[in-house]
């Protein structure tokens, strides 16, 4: 019998390049991870919008990773849609989230055992805390110290005053690079242990609760609405706002938040319509003295 007859016939369309690596081998190399980081660092604030904030930049930075992980058009399309949801965090410390997300996507591509809502839940739950840490350390502390040092040199006529501010860029670049790779390294191990121990539901629930807490805190801080109306009922006028505050502080902002939630749930995600309604309602209410 000839050697050709003993050679197994390979199915059509399965060349060497199409064979999946073994499960215990990573699908991504260090170059892939670093390329994604550099892309994020360059475009993280370019695509900001009220509707999705950094989601387009997040998705663009993840695209080279996703193209390497998912081979079919359907899988790639689902992965891209998964990362087009609202996302907003501090761009440097938030890179920890990206690293973890890449690790979860890699696990999902290999084992198919990572639910979509687990990836979304981790992103939603961590973006608020990472933003708080990053804003405090980078923008509130590090930048102020470096720029103050640069100003002190500049006022004395030293050319170092024009050079020192670039230290902030160098430091944040190194900081983001380390956090990105740290998130990827930790993410691979944590995802593996979580899935093996059956913590997926707990992970999703915990991340969702944390995300709701952060959204509630942001809503309470940024949504402001008061009514200056007063009614003369006796010796002292009755202020409507004081009456509402005695019932529950922040009652009007809460009503606005629930109104927006109702609209999104029942009328679809028409963010531009919501913005127009809010702007028009605020202007009309201010003109007639209601707000």
**Spans where pLDDT lies below 50 across 5 or more residues:** 1-22
Largest sheet: 2 strands, antiparallel
Overall number of strands: 2
Q: What order do the SSEs take from the amino end to the carboxyl end, as H and E?
A: HHHHHHHHHEEHHH
**Strand-residue fraction?**
under 5%
Mean pLDDT: 80
Strand order of the largest sheet: 1-2
Any idea what the radius of gyration is?
A: 26 Å
Compute the number of helices: 12
Count of domains: 2
Q: How far is it from the N-terminal to the C-terminal residue, by CA?
A: 92 Å
The residue fraction in helices comes out at 55-70%
Q: State the secondary-structure class.
A: mainly alpha
* General shape: globular
Description of the molecule:
- The protein has 291 residues and is mostly helical.
- The protein folds into 2 domains: 191 residues, no CATH class; 64 residues, no CATH class.
- The chain has a two-stranded antiparallel sheet.
- Strand 1 and strand 2 form a beta hairpin.
- Helix 3 packs parallel to helix 5.
- The longest helix is centred in the middle third of the chain and has 40 residues.
- The chain is globular and about 80 Å long.
- The protein starts with a helix and ends with a helix.
For this entry, give a set of tags.
mainly alpha, globular, 291 residues, 2 domains
Secondary-structure blueprint of this entry?
Blueprint: H1 3-6, H2 30-43, H3 55-69, H4 73-82, H5 95-111, H6 116-155, H7 160-163, H8 166-197, H9 200-222, E1 230-232, E2 237-239, H10 240-247, H11 251-267, H12 271-287
Antiparallel strand pairs: 1-2
Helix pairs in contact: 2-3, 2-8, 3-4, 3-5, 5-6, 5-8, 6-9
């Amino acid at each position: 019998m000839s050697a050709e007859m003993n050679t197994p016939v390979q199915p059509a369309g399965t060349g060497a390049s199409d064979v999946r690596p073994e499960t215990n081998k990573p699908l991504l190399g260090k170059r892939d991870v670093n390329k994604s980081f550099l892309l994020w660092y360059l475009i993280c604030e370019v695509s900001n919008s009220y509707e999705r904030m950094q989601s387009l930049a997040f998705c663009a930075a993840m695209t080279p990773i996703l193209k390497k992980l998912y081979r079919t058009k359907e899988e790639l399309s689902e992965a891209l849609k998964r990362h087009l949801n609202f996302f907003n965090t501090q761009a440097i410390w938030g890179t920890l989230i990206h690293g973890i997300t890449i690790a979860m996507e890699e696990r999902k591509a290999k084992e198919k055992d990572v639910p979509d809502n687990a990836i979304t839940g981790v992103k939603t739950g961590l973006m608020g805390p990472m933003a708080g840490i990053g804003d405090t350390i980078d923008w509130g502390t590090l930048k102020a110290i470096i720029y103050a040092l640069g100003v002190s040199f500049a006022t004395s006529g030293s050319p170092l005053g024009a050079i020192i501010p670039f230290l902030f860029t160098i430091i944040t670049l190194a900081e983001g690079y380390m956090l990105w790779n740290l998130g990827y390294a930790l993410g691979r191990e944590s995802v593996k242990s979580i899935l093996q121990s059956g913590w997926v539901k707990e992970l999703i629930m915990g991340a969702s609760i944390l995300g709701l807490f952060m959204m509630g805190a942001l809503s309470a801080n940024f949504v402001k609405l008061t009514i200056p109306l007063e009614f003369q009922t006796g010796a002292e006028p009755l202020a409507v706002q004081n009456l509402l505050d005695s019932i529950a502080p922040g009652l009007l902002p809460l009503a606005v938040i629930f109104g927006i939630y109702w609209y999104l749930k029942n009328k679809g995600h028409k963010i531009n319509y919501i913005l127009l309604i809010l702007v028009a309602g605020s202007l009309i209410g201010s003109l007639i003295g209601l707000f």
